[in-house]
Structure formats: C-alpha cells, structure tokens
Amino acid sequence: MHAPKLSTGRLPALLTRFTEFRAKVRSAWPTLEVNELEFSELLRVRESELESLHLPDLVLARACGSADPHALQLLETHFFEPLRAKLSKRHGVANTDDALQRLRSRLLLAGPEGGARIGSYSGRGPLKQWLKTAAVRELIRVEGRSLQPSAPEVEALEHLVADADPELDVAIAQNKVLFRQALAAALGGLSADERDLLRRYFVERQSIDVLAAKCGAHRATMARRLTRLRERLHETISSELATRFQSRNSDLGSVLRAFQAQLDITLERYLK
Description:
Blueprint: H1 11-28, H2 36-45, H3 55-65, H4 69-91, H5 93-108, H6 127-143, H7 151-162, H8 166-174, H9 176-188, H10 192-203, H11 208-215, H12 219-245, H13 252-271
Helix pairs in contact: 1-3, 3-4, 4-5, 4-6, 5-6, 7-9, 7-10, 9-12, 11-12, 12-13
C-alpha cells in the first residue's frame, strides 16, 4: 500500500497520520492487501474518531464485505474458530456450528440492498465482541428457546446503571426499548451461574466474603471474577448500543458516554 497524494497544505500532518494508521493495520493483518484509496477515504471520513476506532477490525470487516478471499480466511481463523471453541463448550458442537453457519450467511452474503451485512460494523467496538453478540442471537434461534435473562434481571441491572444520574434517566426514558435490548443481550451472553452471581451480589447485596465462602473461593478470586463480569457487561452493552443507535437519528456519542460512565461508576462502587 502506498500513501495517497494529498494537498500540499496539510501534506506533512496527513502523511504522518496515514503512515501511523497504515502501520497499525499492517501490524494486525500483515498479509492483507488494503486498497490505498479506500483506506485514505476511510481515514478522512472517520478522522474525528480515529484514536478510539478499532481500525484494524474495521478494515478487515470492510474487506470481508467486499468478498476478499484472504480477508474471509482471516476472519475465519482469528474470529470464527475461537468463537466456535468457546461457544461449543456451553451450547454443544452441533448447535454452535449451525448458529455460526447461519451467522456467516447473514453477515457475508449480499442482502436485498446489495451489500453484505458485515458492512454495518462501525469499528466503535471490538469486532470480536460484535460477532459474539450476533452469534448468541443465532444460538437463540437455533436452540428454539430464550437464552435471554428474565425481565426482573434486566430491570435490576437497569436500576443499577440509571441510579443517581438524571441526564441518563432521560436518555433511557427516550430510548427505553434500545436500552432494554442492549441490557438483555449483555446478560444473555453470560451463563446462568454468572447471572446468578450478579443477582446475589447486586440485587440481594450479598458481600464478597459471603459469596466467596459459598463458592469455596478466596475473597480476592471472587472480587476478580466480579470485576471481569463488569468488564464484559461494559463491553457488550457498549457494542450493543453502538449497533442499535446506528439506524437512529440520535446523539450516540453523548448518550453512550453517559451510559458507560454511569455503568462504570455504579458497578465500581459496589466492587470496592
């Protein structure tokens, strides 16, 4: 890939940024051929969010959307195969394979509008998490039963993240369905044991010491487990909201930042 021709006024700064982000993509996917003109246009259009963008993931997804054979193989090796190994432990090989094949068809084959649905990936969250969320949805369809948490579980988390933040209360009220879907998807990605642990800790207010004793674990081990669950919820909810807000004329940035901040503050307060 060669740097594109740029106007002389901003040439040094733009060349530096182009080289920096090109190196980032090459480091992740050294064997992937990237169209230099499309890449420079991507940097131009997304310039204001480049620092937070998951650029290598986005470049790979766009290449897969164009049916690049090598990009599709990278997607399979680095994303689908690890996802299969993880999901099959909980859902079985047959159901997992069926769900992932459905997911490949949904994401990688051109739809009625002409483009592959993987093109809807925005790069605002990790591609790994985006694919996992989509795979869980397919597993729900394959297994013919709801893997989603009960309404009380969703409402419990809803109260946690909306606590003591009037601005976020308004945002949730205005986008009630989207927030509940994101919360349900986040909890649905956890096992029954993990959801039970969250319920006992956040809803029943059982202490870390009590939970550790019941599980036969050290207090520090239980604290780390709860912290990891918080991080997974944070990532999944953020990814879900970013995906769901794409099709709406909403100020995603401010709403998502408020939601992320409140989720972090609330859960961190309980994890201390």
